[in-house]
Amino acid sequence: MSTTVSPEFTRNLPKAELHVHIEGTLTPSLRFKLAQRNHIDTGYSTIDEMKKMYNYNSLSSFLKVYYAAMNVLQTEQDFYDLAMDYLHRAVKNNVRHVEIFFDPQAHTSRGISFSTVINGLYRATVDARALNIDAQLIMCFLRDFSRDSAQSTLEEALNYKDKIIGVGLDSDEHNNPPMKFYNQFTEASAQGFHLTAHADPDQKDSIEHIQQLLEIICVDRIDHGTNIVEDPDLVELAAKRKIGLTSCPLSNTFLNADMKGTEVIELLNKGVKISIHSDDPAYFGGYIADNYYAIANKYHLTKEQIVTLACNSFETSWISNEQKAIYLREVQDYVQNFNN
Ligand code: ADE
Ligand code: ZN
Fold first, then answer.
1. Which GO terms describe its molecular function (predicted)?
2. Could you tell me the distance, in angstroms and rounded to a whole number, from the CA of residue 20 to the centre of ligand 2?
3. CA–centroid distance, residue 23 to ligand 2 (Å)
4. Rounded to whole angstroms, how far apart are CA atoms 255 and 35?
5. Which ligand has its closest atom nearest to the C-alpha of 65?
6. Which positions make up the binding site for Zn(2+)?
7. Whole-model pTM above 0.85?
């Protein structure tokens, strides 16, 4: 059986990107350039030599490479350049709206101030309006850091409330359940931030973590979260509450040796608002359109299923109902006018 959608269809389809870590968009070439600009010795003399170290087959082995690469990010301009580089690529993927994760603790813990990070990233989101893309920022707590560290990060973020749309949770999930940050999520919600959190595929206690997120913390979205298929009651709850699940096929292929397409199809069939994203595109071999095409191709998704995934991305984004209607219309017009 052959696929029913082309790479061109997935590339030009209007979409929202809701699961992309800005630090995961740091390409080897930008890393190399920033290292030279900031006089930092990466330990590699060529980009190809650097790329050879990009070996990982689990969340923890990936995170080691990912955090080590960040030391080239030093100045506000570096964060601006990082975000602008990604936003240009997102535009080429016809991303119309993006909610970008950033990890302040990965930078404050090595002496870079919160203001340096947020001011550089935010300035890029403003300038990117000239590219006709709407970009927002989601601040993530690193779950393998302490509660106290999350609390002080949240307190700093309150000084930048107008620049941050929501709060997320990422990094190493092993023995770091969502409930560790119950107080910080509760306070963030009371302060008006939207809530999301990672439930990476096939982690120890995956279902327990998903249950905490849905029944106690009451997040709006779950990042990955495909293990929910193991619990039909939770699937029903997620569908009823229109919780967004953000799946990342290429990242799953690297870190879990399984794209999780069977789970995506099951969740689509059960009416869960699941959608497709890129996670850390500089590390997992593709941007968002590549992720759409990879899953479409491998699992023979129909055009209707692909379009539903794109509609779900807008429907579960943190924009107004009026904006959602405009983007959904754009998707419908695209489908009607696409000949192939
Ligand atoms: N940080 C960056 N990418 C991540 C992922 N896939 N899971 C958890 N934390 C992350
Ligand atoms: Zn992620």
1. adenine deaminase activity; zinc ion binding
2. 6
3. 11
4. 27
5. 1
6. 19, 21, 198, 279
7. yes
CATH code of the domain made up of 7-337: 3.20.20.140
Tell me the β-bridge partners of 273: 244
Give 197's Cβ-side CA count (13 Å radius): 30
Q: What is the pLDDT along the chain (340 residues), one digit of tens a residue?
A: 444 799 999 999 999 999 999 999 999 999 999 999 999 999 999 999 999 999 999 999 999 999 999 999 999 999 999 999 999 999 999 999 999 999 999 999 999 999 999 999 999 999 999 999 999 999 999 999 999 999 999 999 999 999 999 999 999 999 999 999 999 999 999 999 999 999 999 999 999 999 999 999 999 999 999 999 999 999 999 999 999 999 999 999 999 999 999 999 999 999 999 999 999 999 999 999 999 999 999 999 999 999 999 999 999 999 999 999 999 999 999 999 987 5
Which contiguous run of DSSP H or E holds residue 194?
A: strand 194-199
223 C-beta closer than 6 A to ligand 1: no
* Contact between 253 and 260 (Cβ < 8 Å): no
291 Cα–ligand 2 center, Å: 14
Collect all residues with Cβ–Cβ distance below 8 Å to 335 and sequence separation of at least 6: 303, 307
Using only the alpha carbons of the chain, give its radius of gyration. 19
Q: Which residues does the annotation place in the binding site?
A: 19, 21, 198, 279-280
